[in-house]
Amino acid sequence: MSSVGKSEAGETMLEDDPDQTYENVLAEIQSFELPIEATLRSVYDDQPNAHKKFMEKLDACIRNHDKEIEKMCNFHHQGFVDAITELLKVRSDAEKLKVQVTDTNRRFQDAGKEVIVHTEDIIRCRIQQRNITTVVEKMQLCIPVLEMYSKLKEQMSTKRYYSALKTMEQLENVYFPRVSQYRFCQLMIENLPKLREDIKEISMSDLKDFLESIRKHSDKIGATAMKQSQQQKTFGIALQKQNNIKFGKNMCINDRIIEEKDELILKHLFEEENEEEILTVQDLVDFSPVYRCLHIYSVLGDEETFENYYRKQRKKQARLVLQPQSSMHETVDGYRRYFTQIVGFFVVEDHILHVTQGLVTRAYTDELWNMALSKIIAVLRAHSSYCTDPDLVLELKNLIVIFADTLQGYGFPVNRLFDLLFEIRDQYNETLLKKWAGVFRDIFEEDNYSPIPIVNEEEYKIVISKFPFQDPDLEKQSFPKKFPMSQSVPHIYTQVKEFISASLKFSESLHRSSTEIDDMLRKSTNLLLTRTLSTCLLNLIRKPHIGLTELVQIIINTTHLEQACKYLEDFITNITNISQETVHTTRLYGLSTFKDARHTAEGEIYTKLNQKIDEFVQLADYDWTMSEPDGRASGYLMDLINFLRSIFQVFTHLPGKVAQTACMSACQHLSTSLMQMLLDCELKQISMGAVQQFNLDVIQCELFASSEPVPGFQGDTLQLAFIDLRQLLDLFMVWDWSTYLADYGQPASKYLRVNPNTALTLLEKMKDTNKKNNIFAQFRKNDRDKQKLIETVVKQLRSLVNGMSQHT
């Protein structure tokens, strides 16, 4: 009930029965259960005098309680008195008991002193025993830890670092947790990271030593790998040949010889393999530092750091390996060392790839190889360009093939290397062309340019074995006899075949079909014929010391070389094993080459023949003022004609048209030279006697032309070369000016080939002579008449010349 409710209830009760109400209030106060604040408030908040009445009631209640207490004390007083009396009686007994207890205690203490001493000894022994047990238990925990740590130290001292790391793991995971509360354990725990770092440094140092070692031994590793690859290839080729012969259809003597030869090769290879132990990269290099370092870093959880370091260092080494020496191109050993180092590098990487997990990946090796391949190609392209010796280029090609085959066997793509070989092949052909240019020059310089003399059958067979010459008429002749060509022809033919064989050597092992090789050989041979041999021939033909006889022999030689081109084609077909029916490749251009050389030689013959004629003409020593001729031809002209006769006899071996053209050209040039001699501007005077003497020389020229020095001319075709001179000299000898002037311009004119300007020039030279000639002094009338006639003719000739110029 709330205080408000109680107050209201108290007021109500006080109004009804005040005495009962005060009793209830007192009961509530005595109960000690309910709060008295509200009760007292109900008393004091009542009507006036309620407090006084309440106090009266309270005093009455107190008195009642005092009376009850007094009654209770009176009731228990006797018992209390009895108890005190009993207690006083016990006091004396208690004192006696105390004395007895004290005495007993003294006796016990005296008796227990010895027991206490023995007890303390027992306790001390028990404590020691317990401590010993505890120490034994703790030592049983610590000793394995100490033993493992001692084992760790031993493993570190014996460089078994991977085992040491495993021991560390066991210490940390198994042993240290058992004794972690001891200080020595904390010291050990603090020392383990330092040991791990020491192991990392030591293993890294071992790895550096390993990297330095394989850098030094890369060439040996590569040389071994390349040698094994070459042996396998040679063995495979020999075995294939043996199988082809064994199962082939042709069992001729040559096949048996080849079979025996291949069997010997195979036997030799087997013996080499038995004698020489086949070494692998593991036999040459100790890879344990790599494995150990990889395992150590794997255990340490730092495998990525090791992989990055290894790859970075190997890339640096790759760049060093790929950097060639400046003099590498000078010797084949320089190239071999370069290739063996590269092969050794990638053989090691391939081995690491296959024996480790993740240290080297295929993507990494492919990236490294692509980088290296680009550098290798650039280096070879640059250094091979300095090679001028074809033998060195060929050895370089063989090295590249072995290099490519070796790395291809390890799974590296090498197609770009074979593409590079095609570039080097062109360079090889260029070096061959330069070499053979010197060979051809030496052959031409050593040739005597005369037909090859043969005195017996043996010599004849030797020449035939070198050059495919077929002439039934020559075979029927008895010894001694001569081949039409000179010594240079079989030598040139032999050298062209050797060039083809040398070019074929480069094409071998390029993994190309026989058709492609055949086409390459034909193209290189065409270059030899059209560029090298053609240039040598042209240079030879244009040399000043090459005379007409040599030029004639050169033309004969080129004719036979041209005919031998088909045999060269057959030679190429045979060595490439391409049947004639399936050949659709480039043909040899020897025909055009030798034709061009022959045409040049023919032109050189014409030029040199004219030069020789000029040399003879320059020896002419006419007395242009002579009164009478000598009665015989000039000596220089007779010498010239004799020379021409001997030369044209040599021309009998030339094709008919060449000899005829040369003869016609010589006669025309001689005629022109004689005409120029008459019309020379430095020649001011010509007497009739000189003209008559000159006429004698022209008659000899005409006789030479009519003697048919070269067969094949029809009628007087050759004599027409001197027709201009003949008509001019006839005009002056006969002094038939009236006919000339009357018939000038007529197709049937007797002096049709006489030009008025030419006649005028010669006539003026004779006019000046007549003026100064004292012989005519006694015949002045005849002299005057002739002089007048000359002047009249001169005027008429000048009018013709002027008319011609105006018409033009």
TrEMBL record:
Name the GO cellular-component terms.
Answer: exocyst; plasma membrane
Q: Which domain of life is it from?
A: Eukaryota
Q: Name one GO biological process term.
A: intracellular protein transport
Annotated Exocyst complex component EXOC6/Sec15 N-terminal domain ranges read 57-226
Give the transmembrane ranges.
none
Q: Pfam families of this UniProt entry? A: EXOC6_Sec15_N, Sec15_C
Question: Can the keyword Protease be found in this entry's annotation?
Answer: no
Q: Residue limits of the Exocyst complex subunit EXOC6/Sec15 C-terminal domain?
A: 417-765
* Region described as Disordered: 1-20
What name does UniProt use for this protein?
Exocyst complex component
Q: Which gene encodes it?
A: EXOC6
